[in-house]
């Protein structure tokens, strides 16, 4: 994760005022959020929490994601509340669980354990992954290997997101990673590790292996993460697969949402036309994702350095997260 920067409280207040303004568009709110995400201190944290009052489930889930990426223990109480709220959208609850796993403090353990068997499969699987992530790094620390593993993972990955699991070792052959990812009997934690290792490996074969999961996986959670990493990779070979996912009205909205953002990150002409088409999708999460993805593209084409509000200094734009949340 990029280092947070110091900014005057007046800058943060200006961003908060824009965030609270009912006239502020969804893309503008995203820019504000990415600015706040990169600013250190309690004022920026409090301003981000205001975003959880937004009527858009897509935006609330992005706020939860950003709270996790900051890895600030101050967010734990709020994330616990979101995770427990059965009336909240499952995609937002999922991001809250994943964020608790990213923060990884002792107080994150109980709420994650409480929801290991949540009636919503995406939430339950997220909590299982998050708990295993915390346990994995705790075990590494106990064995005095945490620093070496962190260094190894950093050298294998050029991506700055705080991932739900560590990548599998780079020494594992690609066919073995593919087999692990596609094995429905394999533990989801190991399938995620294979997925991130394939992302780090890169290349046509890795993209093909990742894309194959859309037709074989039963887990919407895993498929949405695959779409997310394809966006991070920004490989045009993924476009045809992502197009099929976005166009499928029977697919889980959280998977289609990530496919839309991934296509925005890849930014091929075909992607842009499809995103324009689906800004009118009946599913608000999908339509809003396309609107935000197009706004990110317009900003990049304008020559902007970072997708954020000019009132603050952001962290890097969300991981296709161009990427947003996973």
Quick structural summary:
This protein has 326 residues and is an all-alpha fold. It has one domain (9-301). It has 17 helices and no strands.
**Oligomerization state:** single chain
Query: Distance between termini?
Result: 15 Å
Q: Provide the low-confidence segments as ranges.
A: 312-322
Helical run tally: 17
Instruction: Tell me roughly what share of residues is in helical segments.
Output: 55-70%
Explain what the structure shows.
The protein is mainly α. 49% of the residues are buried. The chain has one domain. It is globular and about 55 Å long. The model is unreliable at 312-322 (pLDDT under 50). The longest helix has 22 residues, at 121-142. It is built from 17 helices and no strands.
List keywords for this structure.
326 residues, 64% helix, globular
Task: Write the SSE topology.
Elements lengths: L8 H12 L5 H12 L4 H9 L6 H14 L5 H9 L5 H14 L5 H6 L6 H22 L3 H11 L17 H9 L5 H14 L2 H13 L3 H14 L5 H9 L5 H14 L2 H9 L6 H18 L25
